[in-house]
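Hey, resending since the last one bounced:
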Amino acid sequence: MSAEAEEAMRFWDAGTTHAWMARHWMPRLFERFGAAVRALHDAAPEASKRAGLVAIARRIVRAAPQVQEALARDPALARWVAGVEEAVASGAQATRLQALLALLPRFAVAVAMREGADLDLPVVLGSTGLARVPADGRMLQGPPARAVRAQVRAGELITHTRAALAVGPFELADGAAEGGRMPVLRPLTGADSLAAVKPLARGVNALGETAPAALVEAAALSPVLVAIAAAPDVSQSASRPDVRGCVWLAAPDRPLVVAETLLHETSHSKLYLFEDAHPLVEAPDPPRFTVPWRADPRPARAVLLGLHAWVRVVCWLRSLAESDWSQPAAERLPVLLGATRAAADILSRADGLTPAGRALTERLTREL
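The structure tokens again:
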């Protein structure tokens, strides 16, 4: 298992990342998509019929492999699937199910664009009059909560759109332009989202200057960023194992903090993908450990996810000793070393780790 542990530590290039996603994440996502479509149809048969659920779902599952890969790398489809899973499991009201159905035409637009096809379909806009095109980033716009006709001719979207915002190699998505499941955070939209561009760009540049391989991997794992509301100078972020391709993060005007956040969250994204192929813990895995960075008890898997991300951050901060960032890096290191060593000690005595989980713990501990 030592080779697998090294694989989890090293930075992947875009091709390697995309190959892992196609092999391990995409099949799971499309299996969940099929189950979500069936569950939604059973929960709201008449609304599903009116929305053309089955026809659009068929278009997605019959799309060319490269189109499905593009949809799997983008967070929109996974957010929709996770949203349906949560809504059906909780017995959500009809209005919630209808809102999820209203998102479906966006995927038909994305498939038509990728396949060079023709399409003329109404797309319902969000509460701020925006609708992001999955796996593309452009936003249809018009009156809030109204439908606009999305027209695609030979793969070209001819309906007027707003361009996607680029932050280095990432897309900064407007928080109100997309639906589906997300962490419990408040995404920024409109002018507030635009205001996050410059501080995020400075953080992206800092990561690219100090660890270019880390930036390449981060952009391949999570090509979409969503800025979130947070107190000034506060670093807050999240990602989800059931929604790949996106990081939600605050945008403090502190480049090294933003760079660390990107490295930390995309390290989670990497380990989610890694454990699709190499499970790290055995079930059951109840919350039973207290770690320095959380007040609530955590399962072994969460401790290992945190240890992996923090050790990668520690290695990066150490590499800054001779750089312009040496002072803030030196100030940050002792805090992280104390936390990571405590987590490594917990896992060294924990039961329930698989051979892959044990090998990864040992590999991470050697960096401390």
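The CA atoms of residues 148 and 185 lie 29 Å apart.

Sorry for the duplicate.
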